[in-house]
Design goal:
Layout (H helix, E strand, L loop, with lengths): L7 E7 L2 E9 L4 E3 L2 E2 H5 L2 H7 L1 H5 L6 E8 L3 H19 L3 H7 L29
Parallel strand pairs: 3-5
Antiparallel strand pairs: 1-2, 2-5, 3-4
Helix pairs in contact: 2-4
Length: 131
């Protein structure tokens, strides 16, 4: 078994999704939970969104992505993957300026608002009847 010293780790979060990523020098293959990235996300747009840090840093086909996803839905997981890849690229090279300018290092703080009692959803109220 060969040991690969060039493994870069990163953790990303978005909504309730958590993504743990390993970047290994390779050809650009994406694997999420043991499945191909395009097959896992189902839509190419979500995969392209997640791989944006590679385009910003011009490292598109330099690394293979091995990701472990938990929580959330596919959209949140895609955003978490983007965050994790950006964090892993920080340890891979001197890309901080490009990633920071593109906004990939900031965790998106938006969360789902909780449902309140007496309401149908977080803000939707029952119809008001005057008489």
């Amino acid at each position: 078994m060969t040991t690969n010293d060039a493994v870069y780790l990163g953790t990303g979060r978005r909504k309730n999704a958590i993504m743990r990523v390993r970047l290994v020098p390779g050809s650009g293959k994406v694997t999420v939970n043991g499945r191909d990235g395009a097959e896992y996300f189902g839509r190419q747009a979500l995969l392209n969104f997640a791989l944006a840090p590679f385009r910003v840093t011009d490292t598109t086909d330099h690394f293979d992505v091995i990701a472990n996803a938990s929580g959330g839905g596919i959209s949140g997981q895609s955003g978490a993957l983007r965050h994790a890849i950006a964090r892993a690229l920080l340890t891979a090279g001197d890309y901080r300026a490009e990633l920071k300018k593109a906004g990939f290092l900031t965790r998106d703080p938006r969360m789902v608002e909780r449902k309140k009692y007496g309401l149908k959803k977080a803000r939707k109220r029952p119809q008001f009847s005057k008489r």
